[in-house]
Amino acid sequence: MTETIIEILIDHSGSMGFMKGAGVEHEDKYLIGGQTRMSLVKKILIEEIIPTIDYANKIFIRTFRFNSTIVEDKRVDKLYVPLLYEGTFEEQKMQLIISSIQDSLAGGTPITNAINIAVANLEKYENCDRKIILVTDGEENGGGDYIEASKKAMQLKGIPCKTFIIGIAQNEQSEKKAIAIATGGYYNIKTNVTSTTDLQKVLMPLKRAVLQNTIQNIETATNNINPQPIIHQNKTAEIVKEKIEILKSEKIKETTNQLTDFENKLKQQILNSEILLTELANIKDTLRLNTLLDTGIDATTLTIDSDYSENIRKTSETFLYSFLCKKFGSEKVKWLNQTVESFLHHDFEIIDDKGNITSLIECKGTIKDKPTFYLTSFEWTFFIKNKDTYQIYRVFNVLGEMYVVCIDNLLTALLNRQVVPYLLKPEILKEERVFLTLITN
Predict the structure, then answer these.
(1) Of 86, 111, 314, 365, which is the most exposed, with the fewest CB atoms less than 10 Å away?
(2) Domain 302-438 CATH assignment equals 1.20.140
(3) Is domain 4-245 given the CATH code 1.10.101.10 in the classification?
(4) How far apart are CA 137 and CA 365, in angstroms?
């Protein structure tokens, strides 16, 4: 059976963060939409790349950078390539690890060293489907030759190992060098590409290339093995092919069901254009949503604008931070999203005098007085695992005269029917949402 082994290498150099302390000319210079490039990388990996490779047997996740120190008036660059994750595919665990990566204050970009470490590891898996996914915003500045390093990956004994590169706002020079080593494909995320829809358009070819490379490698392995296990190997290849085809078709399911006559005429043309394909799916979703809205049913979680939602989040969390500081003291309140969205499953932590976390707080804001709020499946799982310390603070009348209601212990509130797991009126919700209603009387 051919296993899939994937190395994910994440650029953790200074330009991926705020560059605080690097001088006025550098601080905040590399932000995208007011957020660090690392924030965008985490969004890309968590929402797009990780779900695509759920068939992998083993995954390694590493960050890489140089840490610079001054020794006897000379700058010394120390290589730092920590292994953050090693193991089978565990989506939530990997998402948590990636979301926990902090912005680096400074440091160079040792791409060559990172690739060499990945290649040395992948060398152990000679007869496996191997690939490297590299995410970077720059180019090699540690003196290495990363073109030669990439060639080593392709020249590994056994099935060739390809390198796929996601560039983050790379300039023309960095882009050319990245293309030279991207044996599996190169995809540059421009500074104006930050929304989920835009990212899906840009990354669709990358995800397809990764999956097609796996199919090719499985077929190569099937042709190279001894005659006796060929039947089993072919069966395995077909199973993996079927799984990959399912992944590839996720974005087109809505366009292949109950298509109108006009859509049938356009189908072949749409399939030849990834951009048109994504746009058609969005149009169909909008038409279907408009039909639902005509019934008068609440569809808040489907219709809310992402920028508007972000404004509500920031406003409600800012209000709650002030509230918690007055309640507990500012030194005991940790706001996880104070600088930038952390993508964690809660927003605040309350710390005691010994540095222990006593409360995990999720902020849920609403512009009016709606008693129903929602937890994502990610948040719900986290609540179940931390039920003794998990709290909800519901902030009402955001953008107006705000006030807050504290659910001191969500599990206790559910058992006492202070919070109930049902709606008070019909709603249309996004997938993987748990709805809970606060009973105030």
Answers:
(1) 86
(2) no
(3) no
(4) 34
Range list for CATH 3.40.1350 in the chain: 302-438
Residue 301 has pLDDT above 70, yes or no: no
Spatial strand order in the sheet of 403-407: 333-335, 348-351, 357-365, 390-396, 403-407
Domain with CATH 3.40.50.410 in the chain: 4-245
Q: Crossing angle, helix 196-224 and helix 230-248, to 10 degrees? A: 170
49-107 pLDDT, tens digit each = 998 888 889 999 999 988 766 666 676 678 889 999 999 999 999 999 999 998 877 77
Single-letter residue type at 55: Y
Question: Phi and psi (nearest 5°) for 78?
Answer: -105, 125
Average pLDDT score over residue span 111-120: 92
Torsion angle of C-alpha atoms 133, 137, 142, 146, degrees rounded to 10: 40
Pairing between β-strand 372-376 and β-strand 357-365 as defined by DSSP bridges: unpaired
pTM score: 0.54
Query: What pLDDT is stored for residue 399 in this prediction?
Result: 83
Which residues, 6+ apart, have CB-to-CB distance to 345 below 8 Å?
A: 96, 362, 378, 379, 381, 382
Which string of b and e fits 365-389 if b means at least 16 CB within 10 Å? Answer: bbbeeebbbbbeebbbebbeebeee
Q: What sign does the CA torsion over 27, 43, 88, 223 have?
A: negative
